[in-house]
Amino acid sequence: MRKRLLGAAVALALAAAAGAVGLVRHDEAEKRKQAAQTVKVVHWNICGAAQNCANRGATHAGTSVARLADEAQRRRPDLLSVNEICRAQYEELDLLLALKGWRMAGAYAQMHDNVPACGGDSSYGLAVFSREPLTGPVQFRPFTVTGDEEYEAQGRIEQVRRGMLCVPTSARGRQLALCGAHSGTAPGQLAEVHHWFADRAAFPPQLPVVFAGDLNQQPNEASLAGLYAHTRGEKDLGEPDGRFIEADERDRDWFRQGGAGGVRCDTKGVSRCRNGAPTTVDDSRKIDYVFATEDHFTAPDGRTARFPESDHLLYEGTFRFRQ
């Protein structure tokens, strides 16, 4: 009898152990599956050559260009968006990414051509990079609404030509459009962005889109309503009717803050809020964003990191492709 009981106990223990191993393997398989669907985006306004930049136009160690290359090597983003970058800095970043073993395909758009600190052709603008190849032509759409912005250097005054840069590429083997922008304070520029993304010929509903940039607008402003895809909250100045989720919109620590220019949301009543942690160093505003189309992505998550080389925080966003 004792032998039978002992045998039964051993059999049960073995079965339990096998079940536990099965659960571990299932969990590991699920984690691998989610990792295979996760897209990581890094965005940073590097303060490449503006008057208040620490290392104007430079690319050597200790500059924001070198820092971004190091962070890309460490964080291993699928997609990268960069604002306030000289053409020479873009070329150096492209080289550094390859040297550090994280080669990415890039595109650059010129927004100013009178920034002496940039050297060379004095070109200054924005850039996007993808870990996977670009699969079609690069397109830069200048804003028709200028906001009457001007840039003065060496006795010349010129209009600032802001706009949106888009490239076709892929992430995790799935086609998408990657777009970056550095808009100004003129709300009409984001209205143009909303209009462009609503163009079904340029951005078909079945095409995933990732959009990042320093937009110089805070989350609760009416200009952002054309991007966010979810409902109104307190202090919301516009009715959201956009296509996008934003990386930091589930950060409950900021739902009731409103201090970063965000909507105030009920932490018990909603799971998403037009808010998020500040992205600027000196005035605690959230003006940098990482968006992804709601129809194609889920599980947004955002985090920031502060470095001395720029007046903006580096912003990392992650999403998962929907099944």
TrEMBL record:
Start and end residues of each Endonuclease/exonuclease/phosphatase domain: 43-312
Pfam family, any one: Exo_endo_phos
Recorded superkingdom: Bacteria
Keywords, comma-separated and alphabetical: Signal
InterPro entries: Endo/exonu/phosph_ase_sf, Endo/exonuclease/phosphatase
Coiled-coil blocks: none
Leader peptide range in chain numbering: 1-20
This protein's name: Endonuclease/exonuclease/phosphatase domain-containing protein
Organism per entry: Streptomyces bambusae
